[in-house]
Amino acid sequence: MTCYIPSYCTGINCCIEVDQIGKTFNVYALLDGCNWRLTLGIERRKIDISLLDYNWGQTQIFTLMDIIYLEYSVHDLKGENSYMLNVKIKVCLQKGGGSCLFTKTLFENTKIQKFGCDWSHSEFKIQDFSLQKFLSDNDVVDNAAGLILDKLLEELGITSELKDTQCNRALSPYTPVDSNGWNIGCEKTLPYILPAIPNTMSCHLTDTCTGIDCCIDVDQISRSINVYIKLDACNYKLTAGIEKLTFDVPLLNYEFGQKQSFRLKNIFRIDYSIIDLSMEKQFVVDMDVSVCFEANSPCVFTSTVMNSARLPKPICDLRSNLSFEDISFKELVENLLLDVTQQLPSYAADILLERLGISQWMQDVPCSRQSSQYTPNVKGWKILCPSNIPLQGLTGNLSCTIPDYCTGIDCCVEIPQIGRTFHVYLLLDACSHRLKIGIENLGLDQAYFNFEFDKVHEIRLSKLLTLQYSVSDLDGKKKYIVNMNITVCLEPLGSCIFTWDILKDVYLPKLGCDWNTSMSGSDWNISMAGKYLYMGHSQGCLFT
């Protein structure tokens, strides 16, 4: 057998030689992540599968005459921006897959990186398609209808991407509308007036103030089309959608300010750009939508939906605004046919974190309890603070450090059941009056005047890991009183496997401030805050 992987990486094409019968067979599986399509083929037998309807992770079989079997499954690891593939080929003489002459595993829990989609070069299914020519060829005077409409949608290649139920401009959330065609669900006072849009389109600005959802009446195909862009400032994610076709982009490493396109077969188009004004807690959005039916002529419809519009970000509650899933560890392990008493293999841990919705928050380089950050230590503690701090010993799979400025706690939590570590931290800067608290890349960077002292707060990374903490500022005594505990739960219901009371009414001393440095001993700098939910800055002085 000889195989090759195409330039876009998410596919495989093989030539199989079966000596026993003196034949060769061409077998291929090609995954188009941009158009959400999986193409399978055995010789001249070919099938296109819409990934919009595929149950991710489900094993399916494609066969030719019950002789050649192509067995496959695909997991969509959105948080890691990759796919996990399993592909096996069998050549069997007995129906049902028995008595096989040839069996070969091509991919086994193999992760393949997704490449970015360049929608600006999207093409019509028929490259030189012309609606006018199609109508003329089919003797249609007005707009296509009935069987001719079905034929048109098929030639456009959009049938499977259209929603079963059309959007309706006469129903919520598109009504009632103001004089410019908008239904504004945002309760904040907007610093601009939304532009007027054509009378064939209605748009809704969502209650988060950072989502734009539009419904367009397209007479040429006798239906309404839903297009939208939703900026989730709390989960730090951008979602663009045209009918069923959606595109999710994490904003942690997003290139703000770049012009982007999202297209459905080059017919329906969204062109947009986003700027993140972190200090002003706003997004600046440009958004145009177009409908095009001529490959070599202008679009029949184009409208500016947003023009340098400033969308205010919501205030995020790390306990309630984040989108996580409740997944049973035991059920997942059993579904993957693994032993629940053994540590998860790496691929299964990847699937678990993706299903929980936390993989996007994981740091690129995991913390290590064996690193110099946490060793050498005594009873789990590495203490760099020059003052004497009475601490209770740490037990189990946990190591913590108190840095040389004394008012920080940095921990590495190991969960052996899934073979992963998690970075948990609570850093108090008495000189700049700021605090930084979080789990992995999920956290906050906040000024004291926005923080509620003497109150119990909580950050959850799904229900897998919970950080509870409280801080009291004893300004007169130059100390903080800090409480901090961490809980690890593998099941959404039932008892948790680990609970650590790391600090319990512990006094952390404030040292004198050296104004030539900041947070001595910390790896933090102000440019890192751009990754976090509440603040973000660019390097350099804020005021001179």
Sum this structure up briefly.
The chain is mainly β and 544 residues long. The chain is built from four helices and 29 strands.
What's the arrangement of strands in the largest beta sheet?
10-11-12-13-14-15
Structural class of the helix and strand makeup?
A: mainly beta
Distance separating the two termini? 68 Å
Overall number of strands: 29
**Quick one: biggest sheet?**
6 strands, mixed
Radius of gyration: 28 Å
Q: How would you portray this structure in words?
A:
It is a single chain. The chain is mostly beta strands and 544 residues long. The protein folds into three domains: 2-113, no CATH class; 119-312, no CATH class; 332-511 and 518-531, no CATH class. It has four helices and 29 strands. The chain has helices spanning 131-137, 146-156, 329-335, 346-356, and strands at residues 2-4, 11-18, 23-32, 37-42, 45-50, 60-64, 68-77, 82-94, 98-113, 182-184, 201-205, 211-218, 223-232, 237-242, 245-250, 260-264, 268-277, 282-291, 301-312, 381-383, 398-402, 408-415, 420-429, 434-439, 442-447, 457-461, 465-474, 479-488, 498-509. A six-stranded mixed β-sheet has the order 10-11-12-13-14-15, with no helix packed on it. Strands 20-21-22-23-24-25 form a six-stranded mixed β-sheet, with no helix packed on it. A hairpin with a 6-residue loop joins strand 1 and strand 2. The chain is flat.
